[in-house]
């Protein structure tokens, strides 16, 4: 058994030694945003935040996530109040098939938490490990820039 804090909710689930965090999130907790892509931590489809850091859930043993804060796309925002990154990806129509989208959004949220004003090169470098086969790369770049602008404006307004 392992107790996981996922999207702010603590849940205890039985896990085998071989179970990845991705498997537990999808199969046991019914969170479908992290996707199985390569199973090797190379494509980014399974990206989640672990203690605020972007991580590939397909290569993290679920037992090692106990006691850590895990955030999936579902935990970034809600249907009534989207996270600025989620809204920016919608506004810029930065998806086609959508398979990579969860990982891209989570990775972007992690980037903007560390660097609120990234350059195009910094965005490209940060997202380079998240594979998109549909070719929405320009729209994704625009979405990241839009989210950064919105988040900076909100931060300045609250200061």
UniProtKB/TrEMBL annotation:
PANTHER family: BLR6046 PROTEIN, OXIDOREDUCTASE WITH IRON-SULFUR SUBUNIT. One of its GO terms (molecular function) is oxidoreductase activity. CDD domains: fer2 (cd00207). Residues 1-76 form the 2Fe-2S ferredoxin-type domain. SUPFAM superfamilies: 2Fe-2S ferredoxin-like, CO dehydrogenase ISP C-domain like. Keywords: 2Fe-2S, Iron, Iron-sulfur, Metal-binding, Oxidoreductase. It holds the Pfam family Fer2. This is Oxidoreductase. It comes from Polaromonas eurypsychrophila. It comes from the Bacteria. InterPro entries: 2Fe-2S-bd, 2Fe-2S-bd_dom_sf, 2Fe-2S_ferredoxin-like_sf, 2Fe-2S_ferredoxin-type, 2Fe2S_fd_BS, Beta-grasp_dom_sf, Diverse_Oxidoreductases. The keyword Iron-sulfur applies.
């Amino acid at each position: 058994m392992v107790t996981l804090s996922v999207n702010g909710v603590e849940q205890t689930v039985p896990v085998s030694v071989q179970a990845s965090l991705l498997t537990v999130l999808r199969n046991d907790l019914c969170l479908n945003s992290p996707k199985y892509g390569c199973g090797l931590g190379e494509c980014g489809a399974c990206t989640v935040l672990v203690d605020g850091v972007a991580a590939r859930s397909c290569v993290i043993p679920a037992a090692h996530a106990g006691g850590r804060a895990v955030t999936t796309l579902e935990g970034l925002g809600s249907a009534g109040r989207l996270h600025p990154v989620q809204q920016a990806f919608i506004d810029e129509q930065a998806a086609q098939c959508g398979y990579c989208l969860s990982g891209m959004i989570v990775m972007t949220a992690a980037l903007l938490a560390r660097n609120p004003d990234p350059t195009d090169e910094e965005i490209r470098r940060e997202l380079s490990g998240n594979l998109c086969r549909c070719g929405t790369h320009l729209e994704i770049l625009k979405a990241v820039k839009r989210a950064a602008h919105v988040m900076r404006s909100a931060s300045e307004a609250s200061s």
